[in-house]
Amino acid sequence: MFFDEGYSGRKFIMAAKSYDEADIVMFGMPMDYTVSFRPGSRFGPNRIREASIGLEEYSVYLDRHLEEVSVHDAGDMLLPFGNAAKSIDMIETYANRLLEDAKLPAGIGGEHLVSWPVIRAMFNKFEDLAVIHIDAHADLREEYEGEVLSHSTPIRKTCELIGPENVFSFGIRSGMREEFQYARESGMHMSKFEVAEPLKKILPQLAGRPVYVTIDIDVLDPAYAPGTGTAEAGGITSKELLEAIHAIAASDVQITGFDLVEVSPAYDNSEQTAIAASKFLREMLLGFKK
């Protein structure tokens, strides 16, 4: 069993379609077992759902209403606490099911390692897959303190799986020297510090291709998103991240799925991080399903 079949808690705003009716399936991946600094992102998905109640159903940016998309919120996966390997296998199995059923997966983390099994499922389904990665951190380590399953490794694993030339990272402002050396020498694309403008220049190159989008909330400056496990000063604004999301939505790429990760509510009593995350997810729900 992947989910609590009796779950009757908060769902993301207007994500009330049944599984069979829905084109998009949202699902929480409440895992934070491998974080290198502050834990707590396993509580992110439900806090984002709670914050979504304050959203308007209408996006003035996209001139679309949530009534125009059919979304099912499956709730949080029942992942075995502390067992990263089994959790990853379960997430990949569920992502495979969504793709087999022609659903658009919309994941909510959880630490960033949860993106890795979904990307594996995407790679098995789509030829010529590309990944757009928006984050403060390079996430290009091969291991962290000897542990190969770490939230600092998913993009390195992705490069090794789909080829570094198919990975496009934006907003990066933190990482080991060796990570940046790997990025330079491997052929992957990395834009440091900024997101929207370099992304707009890359998107025409990805036209027509299947693309998975993964966003780590810590790409935002801590002034805009203090509620994250590894906050990094010098980040972008909420406005710039919205601009990037809308640029992807307006492009000719084929979105195969997306996620937003690393919201850790305990470090933000004001809830501004969860509130921002819920808005980003609304814009992706409305913009990424053509």
From TrEMBL:
<dbReference type="GO" id="GO:0008295">
    <property type="term" value="P:spermidine biosynthetic process"/>
</dbReference>
<dbReference type="GO" id="GO:0033389">
    <property type="term" value="P:putrescine biosynthetic process from arginine, via agmatine"/>
</dbReference>
<keyword id="KW-0464">Manganese</keyword>
<comment type="function">
    <text>Catalyzes the formation of putrescine from agmatine.</text>
</comment>
<comment type="similarity">
    <text>Belongs to the arginase family. Agmatinase subfamily.</text>
</comment>
<feature type="binding site">
    <location>
        <position position="218"/>
    </location>
    <ligand>
        <name>Mn(2+)</name>
    </ligand>
</feature>
<feature type="binding site">
    <location>
        <position position="216"/>
    </location>
    <ligand>
        <name>Mn(2+)</name>
    </ligand>
</feature>
<dbReference type="InterPro" id="IPR005925">
    <property type="entry name" value="Agmatinase-rel"/>
</dbReference>
<keyword id="KW-0661">Putrescine biosynthesis</keyword>
<dbReference type="InterPro" id="IPR006035">
    <property type="entry name" value="Ureohydrolase"/>
</dbReference>
<comment type="pathway">
    <text>Amine and polyamine biosynthesis; putrescine biosynthesis via agmatine pathway; putrescine from agmatine: step 1/1.</text>
</comment>
<feature type="binding site">
    <location>
        <position position="135"/>
    </location>
    <ligand>
        <name>Mn(2+)</name>
    </ligand>
</feature>
<keyword id="KW-0378">Hydrolase</keyword>
<keyword id="KW-0479">Metal-binding</keyword>
<dbReference type="InterPro" id="IPR023696">
    <property type="entry name" value="Ureohydrolase_dom_sf"/>
</dbReference>
<dbReference type="GO" id="GO:0046872">
    <property type="term" value="F:metal ion binding"/>
</dbReference>
<feature type="binding site">
    <location>
        <position position="112"/>
    </location>
    <ligand>
        <name>Mn(2+)</name>
    </ligand>
</feature>
<keyword id="KW-0745">Spermidine biosynthesis</keyword>
<dbReference type="Pfam" id="PF00491">
    <property type="entry name" value="Arginase"/>
</dbReference>
<feature type="binding site">
    <location>
        <position position="139"/>
    </location>
    <ligand>
        <name>Mn(2+)</name>
    </ligand>
</feature>
<feature type="binding site">
    <location>
        <position position="137"/>
    </location>
    <ligand>
        <name>Mn(2+)</name>
    </ligand>
</feature>
<dbReference type="InterPro" id="IPR020855">
    <property type="entry name" value="Ureohydrolase_Mn_BS"/>
</dbReference>
<protein>
    <recommendedName>
        <fullName>Agmatinase</fullName>
        <ecNumber>3.5.3.11</ecNumber>
    </recommendedName>
</protein>
<keyword id="KW-0620">Polyamine biosynthesis</keyword>
<dbReference type="GO" id="GO:0008783">
    <property type="term" value="F:agmatinase activity"/>
</dbReference>
